[in-house]
Structure formats: C-alpha cells, structure tokens
Amino acid sequence: MGDMEEESGDVGMSNNVNDQSWIPKAIKKRVCTTFVEASFSNGRMCQCGATRDTHQAVALGDYFSTAIVSHWDSIQHSSAYPTDAFGELEFEGASRRHSKFLRLSCDTPPSIAYKLLTADWGLPLPNLVVSVVGGEGRAKVKMWVREVLRQGLVKASQSTGAWILTEGLREGVGRCVGEAVRDHAAAASSVSHNKVVALGIAPWGLVKNREQLVNPQGSFPAKYYVHNTSRDSCSLDINYQAFLLVDDGTVGRRGGEAGFRAQLEDYISKQRTGIWGSGSIDIPVLCMLISGEKNMLKRLDLSLKQSMPWMVLAGSGGVADLVSNILESLSSSPPVPSSADGEGEMGPTVDLKDRVAERVRKHFPSETEMDKLVEQVLSIYQNKDLITVYHGEQEGPDDFDTVLLKALVQASKQRVSSNSSPYTEELKLAVAWNRVDIAKSELFNADIQWKYEDLEDSMTDALINDKPQFVRLFTENGLNILDYMTYGRLESLYCSVTDSSLAYSLLQRRLGERQGIVGSQVRLQNVTLSKGLDGSQGVPWLANKISLFEVSRVLEDIMGDVCQPFYHSPLELENITSQRKALKLASRFLQGDCQYRKTRCLFPWASLFIWAVLQNRSNMAVFFWEMTGESVLSALSACKILRELSRLESEAEAKLAMKELAQRFENLAHDVFSKCYQSSESRSFTLLIRKSPMWGGTTCLEMGIAADARLFFSHDGVQSLLSQIWWGDMKRNTAVWKLLLTFFCPVLMYTQLISFRKLEEQQEDQGRSNDIVQGRDNDSLYGETIFSFPDMKHIVHDAQGFNSPRYPLKGTRNTLPKRPFILSRWRQFWFAPVTSFLGNVLMYFMFLLLFAYVLLVDFKPPPPLGPAFTEYMLYFWIFTIVCEECRKTFLLGTMTLRQRMRKYIQDVWNKCDLIAITLFVIGLICRMFQWSYESGRAMLCVDYMVFTLRLIHIFAIHKQLGPKIIIVGKMMKDIFFFLFFLGVWLMAYGVANQALLYSYDPRPSWIFRRVFYRPYLHIYGQVPVEEIDVGKEWDTNCTDNLTLIEEGMEPCRSEHNNWLVVILLVIYLLVTNILLVNLLIAMFSYTFSKVQGQSDTYWKFQRYNLIVEYHSRPSLAPPFIILSHVHLFIKRYIRKVPSIKILHFVLEVDGKAANKLMTWEAIQKESFLIDQSKIQRGSDSERLKRMSVKVDNVLKHMAETRDHDRRLRALESELEYCSSALSWIVETLSQSNMAKPSRPPPTPKEPFSSCSSI
C-alpha cells in the first residue's frame, strides 16, 4: 500500500481520463469468490447477499465448505480486483455541476482516499469534519431534527468551512442533510470562501442502479438516472459533491462502510488545518449521533476508545435517546471501577450495572444479547467526557456553532497538557473556523488574561491562512509584534506562500539561482555535505529554504531603482551593488549559523505589509497598512508592487484583483495626503520629499512616479509643491511676457517688474531650515519647505556642518552672511526652473531656424568646397546638446551607471533624442563624401523632422496644450489599429487590381506603386479612371512585346475581365472611404470622450518629469550651456565641491523632527480612518446589518419568552394537579374513621386562590 500512496501522491488536479488512469492500479474493489450458504435461502443465496449464480464455479466444488464455514467474512471470502467505477457523476435531468465518485475496497488505506479527495478532486481542506451517524433507512425524521440539520449543522459548517459525512443516499438523515446543503448553497453568496462539502460514504452493494456507474476506463461523466426522486430510496443524492462507495463484497447489506469510515475519520483527525497543513491544530472531527440501531453502540464504543468526540442528539430516538438518558440520569453515580479494584467497591458497580441494564432493557426489550449491550454501554459511560448531549428540541438550532465549539473543546481538554492554558485549544478552534465573533464573545471579554505564549501559535495560524480579523484581535489583546516578528519568522512566512501564487514562482526562481551557486561552490571546493535534503550528499537543507535574500531579490526586481534593496543589513550585504557578488556572498553567508534569524525585524509592520501585498491578500494588506508608519508612502509602494505583479500575472482573474487592489491603495494614499494637506501645507510638502529609511531611502514623489499614481499626482497639494519648485523665488502669478522681457533685458530683474519673495521671508525660512537640521522641539520644526537654490544650499551647508563649532549655543540663532543684493537677485532669477525652461525654448527655436537655414539655403558641397560657417555653427550646437545629454545621464544622481542608463532609456523622449543625434551623426558623415552626399542630405532632412517633433515634449508643460498632447498620444494607438485593417484591404485590392490590369510587368518599383501607393491615393479621391477603365482613352505609349516590356517600356492594359476591376474599385472605395474612415472617426471620438475627462490627470502626472528635468538643468541653454558644463567640471572634479542639485526633491529628516512628522502623519491617518468608519456605519448596508442583528435579538428574546410561558403553563398544570390531589386526600381523610382531626381543615387564602385562577 505504500507504493500506492506514493503513486497517488503525484497526481494532479485534472479531471480527464489520462490523469486518473492510476486509480485502477492503486484502488481495488471486492468481489465475493466463496459461496457461504445463507440459512434462510435453501442454498440459493450466499451470506454476502448475492445469488449462487454470481459466484465463481471454483468456489462451489468443495461439498464440505458449507459445513465447515458458517459465517461469511469479507477479507477471507472475497478477492480484490481493480476498481471499475470512478470518475464524474451526472444526474440525468439535473442542471448542476458533476459530482465525483469512486468504488473502493473496504480495506483501502484512508490516506489514499484523503489525497484523492483533496488533491485530485479539488475539495477544499476542511477546518472541521462532522460525521452524521444514524438515521439510516426510510424511518421518518422528526421535524425538529430537520431544523437542527438545516439551520444548525449546515449553517455552522458553512461558517467554519466544514465537511459533512453521511451515507449520501436519498433516505433518512442523508436526504435531509443534502436538502439543507442545497438550500444554503442557493442562499449563500457566490464569492463566499467557506463552502459546505457534503461527502457521501455508502456501501457499494446498497446503491440503487449502481450498474450505471461501472466503466473500467472511468466515466467522465457517468449518466445516473433515478426513478421517482420524491420518495426515499437507496439511490445517490444529487446534493453531494463526492461519493466514496465502499465495497466489502456484499450486496444489499448495510454497515459495510462503517469500518472504512471510522478509519477515514481517524486519519483526518491527525491532519493539520490550514494551507499545506500550516495550522496550529489538527483537523477537529466530531461524530453526531441521530437515532440509531443497537449496532451503533459498538461503533460508538470503539470510536470513543480512539478519543473521538461525539455529540448525541437527545430526543431523536433509538440509541441516541438511550445514551443521553444514561448520561443524564447516572451523572451523579460514581465512575465504574476497574477489575483490579478491591471487592469492597463492587457494590456500587453492581448497582450501576443494574441501572444501566434496566434502561437498556427498556429501550431494547426484545434483545437476546443483553449482557453484551450492557457492557458496551458501561464502556461508553466511562468515556462520558467525550460525549456532549444536545437537546435540540428545547435549545433550538441558533447557536449550534457555539455548541460544536464547546463540544470539541470539552473533548480536547482530555488531551491537553497541564502546562497550557485551558482556553488555548478553544482559541485554536475558533481560529481554524475563522469565527472571530465567538472569540470576542467567549475568549476576549476581559475575563481571561492572555499571555504572549498563548497567542503566538494562533497568530502564525491566522497570518498564514489569511485571517486578518484574528490578527487584529491578537494585536489588540496582548501580542507584541516587536517580540513576535523576527527575521526567522518572516522567512517562515515566506516559506508558507501557496504554490499557486505568483510570489511563490518568483521566490522559487531566485532560490534556484542561489542553489546553483551553492552547488557550484560545493563541487569546486570538493566538500562533502552531510545534511542534504534527503540525508545524502548535496546542497545543505538551509540552501533549499527561502531566505531573506530571495525576498530581497524579488523586491528588487519589482521595485527597480526607485529604492535601495531590502534586508541587506541583516544579510551583511551593505554597499554591495553587483548582483553576482551579492549572490555569492549571500550563498556563503546562509551556509553559516545565520544568527540574524533570531534578531527582531527592524520594521515589523512594513515587513508584514510587503508579505501580504506580494500575495495579493487585500484585507490583510489593508490592516497592515493601517498599522504601519508612513502611510502615504506605504500605500504608494503597495501600488507599485501590485501593478508590477499584475504585468507578470498570467491569470486574468488574479490580474484584475491586483489592479483593483493597487487602485485601492492609490486612493488611500490620495485621501490620507488630502487630510495631511488640509491640516498643514508646509508639513505635507515635507512629507512628499522626505527620505524614508523604511522604504529604502525613497520619497513619496519618487515612489508615486514609479507606481504610475496619476490620481495621487493630480492632488492640489502635489501640484502646489511642483509649482513652487517650478517658479523658485518668484511669485507664481508672474506673467510670461515679464519673464521674456527680463530674459532679453536682465536689468529689469532689479526693478519691480517681477515680484520676488521678500528678504525677511527668506531669512525666516532659513531660520526654519536651521530648526529642521538642529531638531528643535518647537512648532516651526516643519517650517515652510523652501526649494529655491539658495535655500537648498543653506540646508545642505547646515547639514554638513552640524557638528562643527560654528553652531551657536541653544537659544541663539545661526545666520549665514548675506550675499549682495545684485548677486542674490541674479541667482534668484536665473536659477529658477521656469527661467531655464524659457531659455531652452527660445534657443531651441533658434536652433531649428538655423537647422532649416542650413538645409534650405546654405548646404554646401562636400569638402573642400564646404561646409559653410553656419553649418559649423550647427555642428557646435549639436555638440552642446550631446554634452547635456551625457551630463544628464552620467553625472546626475547617486545611482550606479547601469541604473542611470536604464532610467535614461526608459524615457520616450530620451529615445527620441538618441534617434535624432544618431541620425545627425550618420548624415554628417555621409555628407562629407561625394558618393554619399545626397544620402547624407536626405538623412539630415529626416533628422530635422525628429528635432522638430521634440517641441511636443517642450510644450507639454502648458496647461492648455499639455492635455491635448495626451489626447493625441492616445489617438496614435487607434491609428495603428486602423492601419492594420487598411493594410489588409490595400494588399487585397492592390494585388488583384495589378494582376487584372497588367498581365506582365516585371518592374518592382512600378509594382509597389500600383499595389500600395495608388490604392492609398484612392482613399483621398485620386482615381485615374482612364488608366483603370479600358473604355476610356489612354494617351500613354504602351506595348505588348515582352522584350520591350523587360527593357522598361510601359505594358498595355489587359482588356479581359476589366469589368471585374471596376467592381473591385467600387467595393474598395465603399469599404475604405465609408466603413474604415468612419470607424477611425468613431474610435477617435470614443478615445477623446474617454481621455478628455482624465487628460488633466495625465498632464499633471507627466508635468513632474518635465519639472525635474529643468530643475536639474544648468541655467544656460545650448549652445551657451557649454559654459555651464565647464563651470561644473571645474567645480566637481577640480575644486571637489559636491553637487547641490543632486538633492532635488529629497529632504533628510532625522531625530525628533522625523518622529514628530511620523506622529503627525499617523494622526491624520487615524482621522481619515475614523471618517471612513463613520461613513461606512451610516451607509444603508450597515444600517440593514444592524437592523438585522436587532431583529434577530428580538426574535431570540421572543423565543425565550415563549419558552418561559410554556414552562409557566406546565408549572400551572402541575400546581392544579397537586391542588386537586391534596383536595382529594383531605376529602378522603375527612370521610375516614382512621383519625379524628383536632381542628377543621384549613380554608384557602385569597392569594392562593388568585394564583390558582391564573
């Protein structure tokens, strides 16, 4: 059987015949091969239930067999054969999904059956298994039992994700369970995670019409038809998801499946809950006894000896009433002593045995083996702690799930160690069932003091199995996340990622790379590793486990260059930029003792947040986002991760879920920042450019641009910051004509033409900058964030000299020496990004004019006659542009060369610049030689078009032109689709037209013109009718001589089938001019209407890149920018002065300033969450939920009131009976002569009479 288990373990989850071909090899059926005569059949029937004719002839040759063998045994008298009934089951006339079924031997190992159910058939792993026992046959089920099954059992199973095991036949309790499952499935939401799985385990020989299921190759599906489904029968029930048909060789007999069912229940009870068995407890299994015959006592006794908990439904009849009566009536009796006890204790044992025998005799008066039943009942009574009696008729089915929980907890207390908390098992069950309401009401009601050790395992279970409500509950009730979250536990969480997720495949890919490095190191060093995964030589076990290095590599692939790598500090990989070197060092480091796994995680909530986002767990990720700091940046980071994952995801449903969650986090970032902006404008500006140590040194602006967060960038606060950076020290309402006038006449900047910030404001802002650096604890700590050049230089200067003695003592203010007014105003004007932008625009127009003049007027022949002086000016101009592109690529920022190159290439307009420069260099080289002069001139003409198109990017900053440019860019995509359809028609019509008009024309150039160019001109109305229609005169000289045609003469038109040419022309014009052109117009209209509403958002998003570009540019424009380049070269590489503009849009806030800023942001986030909860509570859905809860409470109180009224009426009837009895006694005694009363009988008092009259 071990081989069979291994074979079944490799089976996938497909449902076709090929994937389930292993089933007949591993799973058998049983066929009776020995005839054992039944005493009542006169030799015609075997004790297995089949006739003599169905048995093999070999088994009938022994005439002494019937005398020797008197009792038929399944194992001895039947043989195993490959099963011939398995696959899918389709009920005729029923419009529902197929059920699974399998015929298997009664001695099949339960592990094979369980793997088949979960791995191959795809049934969800259970959090609870309820095995409904009893109630078989066609006996009528009581109405209140039906209600318990429908409103109690199935409802509780749905809330816990349970399996319900019955016989699965359309009779008795099995039919009631099936109908209850059907009703709840119809009423449940389609997106509900917990589905009730009804599993039928029935004897094969009892199933009606079982021959319809037989197919040795498997049935996919098998047609199963049932007659008269309104009556009870032994046919399979349509409402069950799967059937295990246990074959013990009998026909028409019950009980053959009991042994296998008990083994399966015992096997399931030893498996772990959760994903991959990651839960903190074994799967709880509860047997529920309803009614039952006397043979059920043996099943109950054996199961209790295996510590299986039972729930007995009192009042349902049969064995259930017997057990409940004995347990309740004998609960005060002493326990049954063992046989080794003294004789002095035999008295109570005999008394207890007599009382049990009396009750057994009362329930089974005609039983012959009474002593055997009594011993079974006494054995059951010894394990009474595992039995819960449920009075369903009195208690009702409302709180049945709580009853199940308490029954399992009561049974589990017998197995719990004395050191653990008595409530721990109950908590683990509540977590396994995801019933946070039970945990809140029963366990976390301030009556129990929870310790960290009690919550640790349950916390891990809740994290792995995606139960955020329990995670929230644990963190609010004593679990310290700092103690819980270590790097080792974080690695274990990543190891528990499901294999069906995208994150698992990404982690495994990186793990494979490290395993390859480790394997190569082992081979090179010739080291024998004794702790391989399977105990043999090979890669160590730790090398096969996902570590933080794989997580770091995956995050680096997803986040790109927007932030520094994660988790490099615990892995001792700081300042390692080479991925290959980092891989080797990490592989060597992870083969050591790895002490970092015991240390606390630096940012526990952020680490859990990333872990949840990578798995696309929305509710868990949102909760961790609420708990982590830097909420705006965290939400943008999640948006970036999810959108990158959605591009890698292949499944459409998962891709859509990732996009929706990414949009949700972008909305959260937008809303929280809006709250911050309403609170304080200056602090919100600091929030946008603050460098975050939690997220690898990135900022909100950098992460937002990487995450494509258009909605976030469209916020007024972000745009206000960008406008402030754009205008520098000038006021934002300055007219453009004033800037242009000052640009050509710089003297005007010293007049009142342009408004600048006052000197007092600048000094005040500089003082606030000092406060930021020094970390003073005052309200101006966040001050106005200044982004002009002198203020930025001031902040950097203060940061560099923080520990120098130049800083004054506390209570004094440090002031920098003032620059002269002329120099200060000069820098304020020329260092503003808007000035740099205007200068570049004006000079770029002059560059285009110079380029056009050279091409049209002054383009001289090759040397020595040319080039002209103006062309040399153009060459120098292009050279300065190339120098600026090199500076922008290689000399800006702190990233590595590879990261800079990748970032440069990713920009579309940078690609346009590369194309323009490359074309110019090629054209310049070609025009210097006589043989390629014309080609070079043509190349330069094309290059001029590319340089001119660059103006589109320049004017993208304009508030009116920018959105229109976005719309044009979106429409360009529509043109490509239009050109595809047009190209199909062009080729179809052009080739057919050319072949019909000209029988032979070998000239390729003319073929291309007539196949593509001429049909394209037809769209615009240029139709040469005289050339197409042979009825028109054509004044062109032509010939039909093939020799002359090959020499280049025009061939004559073919007059054959010319009518077809005219028809094709009409059809072509109809399709292109009317259909395709109008289709293009409709596509443009749709794109315009769709993008028009969001074009402003797109423009605001793209505006950021343009502002960053001109903020980092030198003040002078090409060709004078070469002076700035020389100045920068001297300053950086000769004087060694660090760059100031390298810190654009980045502000480092440390110490108290950082703590206060994070506290302020957290307060704004809490305020936002409170507002959201108020809105949610005020919604109609929440009001309906609260109203529903109130109505349920009222109905519950009304039910209790009715119960109290019933009890009062019963008490009143008892009082009336007692009163009547006492009256009769008094009357009898008064008429008797036995005793003479000394006083008359008492008369009824008024209160008593009033009570009796009620």
Task: Describe the fold and architecture.
The structure is a single chain. The protein is mainly alpha-helical. Helix content is 56%, strand content 5%. The protein contains 51 helices and twelve strands. It has a ten-stranded mixed sheet, with helices on both faces. Strands 1-2 form a two-stranded antiparallel sheet. Helix 7 (172-187) links the parallel strand 6 (162-166) and strand 7 (197-203). The longest helix has 52 residues, at 1180-1231. The radius of gyration is 44 Å and the shape is elongated. The protein starts with a helix and ends with a helix. The model is unreliable at 1-18, 57-67, 189-193, 335-348, 522-542, 762-816 and 1247-1254 (pLDDT under 50).
Unreliable runs, pLDDT <50, ≥5 residues? 1-18, 57-67, 189-193, 335-348, 522-542, 762-816, 1247-1254
Q: How much helix is in the residues?
A: 55-70%
Mean pLDDT: 80
N/C terminus separation: 73 Å
Count of β-strands? 12
Shape: elongated
| SSE class | mainly alpha
Largest sheet: 10 strands, mixed
Determine Rg (CA atoms, Å). Answer: 44 Å
- Physical arrangement of strands within the biggest beta sheet: 8-3-4-9-7-6-5-10-11-12
- Beta percentage is 5-15%
Total count of helical runs of at least 4 residues? 51
Q: Could you state the oligomeric state of the chains shown?
A: single chain
Subcellular location: Membrane
Domain TRPM SLOG: 100-332
GO molecular function: calcium-activated cation channel activity; ligand-gated calcium channel activity
Pfam families: Ion_trans, LSDAT_euk, TRPM2
